Amino acid sequence: MPSTRPSKIPSKLPSASPSSVPSISPSDAPSSFPSITPSAEPSGSPSGIPSSVPSMAPTYESFDSAEELRNALFGTLGCCVECACDPDYNQAHDSESLVSQRYGHPAHTWDISKITDLSYVFAGYQGTVDLDLNGWDTSNVVESLLGAFSECEFSGDISEWDVSSVTDMSYMLWETTCCFASALNEWNVAKVTNFEEMFGFEVTIPGGIGKWDVTGNGAEGGVYTMFMFATAVNVPDLTNDGGWDTSNI
């Protein structure tokens, strides 16, 4: 119990031993200098007030393989060749809206930087994919875009993809109904050595692809372009920006 007759001249030095019995009533003025040593046990009652300073870098979906990415896409968009579903479902829903509703943010925010192979990632989707995917970091796709958009309808934007490490684009747009939102003329395809049946059916690419370097960086054995435009209805312009150097085809 505190003294009923406190000293009129308080001590300059506090007591060496604090009270072993804490006050039942907390102080109205908490210390502005919190303890350096955190509590050994976390509070059983978390704060009801969130931090006033949110994280500067929100966490978005991250994928380690094309299979994970494909499952997320098809699970969200709702239809594919292999699954039994209502073929009109995805036609009645905007792709961007479906992704945003499920994940809270658009698909272009997804982190796919660990994926090295995007083969068949959209293949067989039975609807129109109109996603803006320019935010995807494709710089580590060092292997393949084989069949990436085959047998699907794609009208999204991938014009800013970094494909400088890709070596295989065969069947990429095979049997595809596709109208790209932006030109692909700036793609660096210098390392690609296989363009077999890349374009098929109705593929429209604004601006042509005459700027492409199809020399395969001088790859031994040359660049394989068999049936590259065999079934294409709309062959893209190959003559703009100087046209192709076909010396290694």
From TrEMBL:
<dbReference type="InterPro" id="IPR005046">
    <property type="entry name" value="DUF285"/>
</dbReference>
<protein>
    <submittedName>
        <fullName>(Lipo)protein</fullName>
    </submittedName>
</protein>
<feature type="region of interest" description="Disordered">
    <location>
        <begin position="1"/>
        <end position="56"/>
    </location>
</feature>
<feature type="compositionally biased region" description="Low complexity">
    <location>
        <begin position="1"/>
        <end position="55"/>
    </location>
</feature>
<dbReference type="InterPro" id="IPR011889">
    <property type="entry name" value="Liste_lipo_26"/>
</dbReference>
<dbReference type="Pfam" id="PF03382">
    <property type="entry name" value="DUF285"/>
</dbReference>
